[in-house]
Automatic annotation (TrEMBL):
The chain crosses the membrane at residues 381-406. Belongs to the calcium channel subunit alpha-2/delta family. It comes from the Eukaryota. Residues 239-354 form the VWFA domain. It comes from Oryzias sinensis (Chinese medaka). GO terms for molecular function: voltage-gated calcium channel activity. PANTHER family: VOLTAGE-DEPENDENT CALCIUM CHANNEL SUBUNIT ALPHA-2/DELTA-RELATED, VOLTAGE-DEPENDENT CALCIUM CHANNEL SUBUNIT ALPHA-2_DELTA-3 ISOFORM X1. Residues 71-106 form a coiled coil. Keywords: Calcium, Calcium channel, Calcium transport, Coiled coil, Glycoprotein, Ion channel, Ion transport, Membrane, Signal, Transmembrane, Transmembrane helix, Transport, Voltage-gated channel. This is Calcium channel, voltage dependent, alpha2/delta subunit 3. Residues 1-27 form the signal peptide. InterPro entries: Ca_channel_alpha-2/delta (IPR051173), VWA_N (IPR013608), VWF_A (IPR002035), vWFA_dom_sf (IPR036465).
Length: 412
């Protein structure tokens, strides 16, 4: 009498770990399979009700779905879908690299491109404005009925930047080569929705072409470089061990600031990063004892979980940094061996009210075992001090210093 879905926990876990837009995307990628499953599922609940009323029992069919087969089937399709997406992205990257290689920067380059804001705009005399021009747009069901142009991408430049800045014009010029790839990709894989390219110069190329409208102040605040996807791609993944001083001197306000500091450090970490937090006085205490000796992904759940544990910290005793540093180095080193996490960006963040000693021996042992270099030369693992007294200035510097360390360590 029931539609059984074996392993339904697993299956639903897959569903729930996705956000709504993904589910939508996947549902169409699976050819509506998810939809029909949920229809069957709710249908089964209906059947149960009917059954309870002991009516119509005979007219109801028994259907059993093999959950394992179903999940396997979905996995194959999912893999196929991801493979296609990865393939499309790879083609874009190759085209971009090639076009960029071929291009010679020309500061006097004049080039008219389709600016997402200016297309189809006319001046008082009815003439197309510069960088505007006539751009044919048609409503398209696949793009939520937005009016799009499937043969051209458009370029958006943040309002605070000059549309005809030579850097932008050169970038827009060479990235024109992506147009063809965008179109090909969409033809090859019609489940694709938007394809876009965010440049470090600040322009944003989007396919298919659409018209952008500024807000009521005439401003378009969008800068692709501030978007999460851009930052995640641009900053390399990092493994970070945060050491928090909980010695007696940290009592009261200092500990409060230290907690906030740690919490803000967590904010700067993203899904690609791994971390752990160790509190130390004369002993070391993993903030989350269950995660002793390892690093965890800096996703939202883990970060929130650690934040809760931060409240349980209390200050007493004396602070002996040496052992905590050794532990941090050991975790980072072990973690690197697992092949997870980042290959070259590891950092120890130290949150304390005063780290006067430099612990040269720890550094010599772990950071450069093969060479004896002084600490102010290249670190293999970046050590970033953050005294609680400077906590407010700290965040401005945090990303900068990470960037600096990792750029200098990972010069390609
Ligand atoms: C896109 O816009 C260009 C420029 O207006 C036009 O030549 C082309 O036909 C349009 N493509 C489509 C598919 O409408
Ligand atoms: C797009 O418009 C058509 C016709 O106006 C309508 O049938 C369809 O449901 C719309 N699609 C979306 C995604 O809004
Ligand atoms: C971590 O776990 C190991 C083994 O369970 C234990 O020996 C060790 O004392 C723990 N370390 C800390 C700092 O809790
Ligand atoms: C991590 O391991 C890789 C490969 O073995 C090595 O090249 C890299 O230097 C290691 N990183 C650190 C920080 O030790």
């Amino acid at each position: 009498m029931l539609v059984k879905i074996k392993h339904k926990c697993f299956f639903f876990f897959l569903l729930f770990s996705l956000n709504a837009s993904f589910v939508k995307l996947w549902a169409s990628a699976f050819g509506g399979e998810i939809k029909s499953i949920s229809a069957k599922f709710s249908g089964s609940q209906l059947l149960q009700k009917v059954h309870k009323r002991k009516e119509l029992v005979k007219s109801v069919k028994v259907e059993e779905i093999d959950g394992v087969k179903l999940v396997k089937n979905l996995a194959v399709k999912m893999e196929e879908m991801f493979r296609k997406k990865a393939e499309a992205t790879r083609r874009l990257v190759e085209a971009a690299e090639e076009a960029h290689r071929q291009h010679e920067e020309n500061p006097d380059l004049q080039y008219e491109y389709f600016n997402a804001v200016l297309i189809n705009e006319v001046d008082e005399e009815g003439n197309n404005v510069e960088l505007g021009g006539e751009f044919i747009l048609e409503p398209n069901d696949h793009f939520n009925n937005l009016s799009v142009n499937l043969s051209h991408s458009v370029v958006q430049v943040p309002t605070n930047m000059y549309n005809k800045d030579p850097d932008i014009v050169n970038g827009v010029y060479w990235s024109e080569a992506l147009n063809k790839v965008f179109v090909d990709n969409f033809e090859t894989d019609p489940t694709l929705i938007w394809q876009y390219f965010g440049s470090a110069k600040g322009f944003f190329r989007q396919y298919p072409g659409v018209k952008w409208h500024p807000d009521e102040h005439g401003v378009i605040g969008f800068d692709c470089r501030n978007r999460k996807w851009y930052i995640q791609a641009a900053t390399s993944p990092k493994d970070v061990v945060i050491l928090v001083d909980v010695s007696g001197s940290m009592k009261g306000l200092r500990l409060t600031i230290a907690r906030q500091t740690v919490s803000s450090i967590l904010d700067t970490l993203g899904d690609d990063d791994f971390f752990n937090i160790i509190a130390y006085n004369q002993e070391i205490h993993y903030v989350e004892p269950c995660l002793n000796g390892t690093l965890v992904r800096a996703d939202r759940t883990n970060k929130d979980h650690f934040r809760e544990h931060l409240d349980k910290l209390f200050a007493k005793g004396i602070g002996l940094l040496g052992e905590a540093l050794s532990e941090a180095f050991t975790i980072l080193n072990d973690f690197n061996q697992t092949g997870r996490g980042s290959v070259c960006s590891q950092a120890i963040m130290l949150v304390t009210d005063g780290a006067t000693e430099m612990y040269d021996d720890v550094f010599e042992k772990f950071n450069w075992p093969e060479r004896k270099v002084s600490l102010d030369l290249a670190f293999r693992v970046a050590l970033l001090f953050c005294t609680v007294l400077t906590a407010t200035h700290f965040f401005l510097n945090f990303l900068l210093s990470l960037h600096f360390f990792f750029r200098s360590k990972c010069t390609f």
